[in-house]
Amino acid sequence: MNSLNIDAFRIINDAHSPSFDAIIGIVSGLGDGLVIALCCAVLMLYRFRLGMAATVAFLLSGIIAQLLKRAFDMPRPPAVLEHVHVLGAALHSHSFPSGHATSDGVMVLLAFLIWQCRDWRSFVMAGLFLMAAYGRIYGGVHFPLDVVVGLFIGVTTMWFCHRWSQSWPVEAWKKTDWWWRIVGMIVVIEAAVLGLGYRMQPSTAQPLAAILPLIALYLVMRFWKEEINRER
C-alpha cells in the first residue's frame, strides 16, 4: 500500500480528541445512504428536477462504488495498521472507494446547484458533507485515497445526472396530480425507517436518526398543506 496514503491517514487519524470525536462522530453520519436518500426525496418536493437528478446520481454512484469495492477488495485501516482510532464499529474489508464519501460527493456538488456559487449556504452545505467525508478517515474506516476517489465519483456522477436531467420531461410529470403525493410518501417512508430503529453508520451518528426524520416530516406536511390549499 502506498506509504503516502498511510502517512496521510496517520496524520488525520492520530489528531483526535474527545470534542472532535463528538462533533465528527455525528457529522460523518451525513454520508449514510438512508440520510442521503431522505435529503434527495425532500429536495424533490421543492426542486423536482434537481431532486430527481440527485436521487439518480446517488443510486448510480453507489452502484459504481460497490462494484469497485468488490473488484479491488482493499483492506481497511484496522485490518493492516495498529492503534487505529475508530468511531463506531471497526470495519476490515472493502475499503476502496469510500461509499459514504461517494454519497458526500453527490451532495457537495448539489449544494452549488441548489444555490448560487457565491451564496454562503452552498459553502455551508458543501463544507458539512466534506467534513462528513473527512470523518471517514478520522473515524478509522477509510484511507485518504478511498475518500478522495469516492468524492470524485460522487461529484462526477452528480454533474452527469444534472446535465442528463435537462432532457427529462419533468414539467409534464409535474402537471399530474400524483407527483407530489408519491414523493411525499417516499419521504414519509424513509423518515419512518430512519427514525424507528435504523442503525446509523457510524453508530456515533445515531442522534441524526432522531433529528432528521422530524425535520423531513415537518417539511413534507407543510408542502402537502400548501398543495392541498392550492388545489381547492
- What share of residues is helical? over 70%
Q: Determine the number of helices (DSSP H or I, runs of at least 4 residues).
A: 11
Q: How many strands, which pairing sense, and closed or not: the largest β-sheet?
A: none
* Fraction in beta strands: under 5%
CATH topology title: Vanadium-containing Chloroperoxidase, domain 1
CATH class: Mainly Alpha
E-strand count? 0
The first-to-last residue Cα distance is 64 Å
Structurally, how many domains make up the residues? Answer: 1
Query: What's the average pLDDT?
Result: 94
Strand-pairing-aware structural class: mainly alpha
The gyration radius over C-alpha positions equals: 18 Å
Shape: globular
| Helix and strand sequence | HHHHHHHHHHH
Give the oligomeric state.
single chain
Low-confidence stretches: none
- Second rung of CATH, namely the architecture: Up-down Bundle
Task: Describe this entry's structure for a reader.
This protein is mainly alpha-helical and 232 residues long. It contains eleven helices and no strands. Helix 4 runs antiparallel to helix 6. The longest helix is centred in the first third of the chain and has 25 residues. The model has no long low-confidence stretch (mean pLDDT 94).
Task: Provide a compact summary of the structure.
The protein is mainly alpha-helical. The protein is built from eleven helices and no strands.
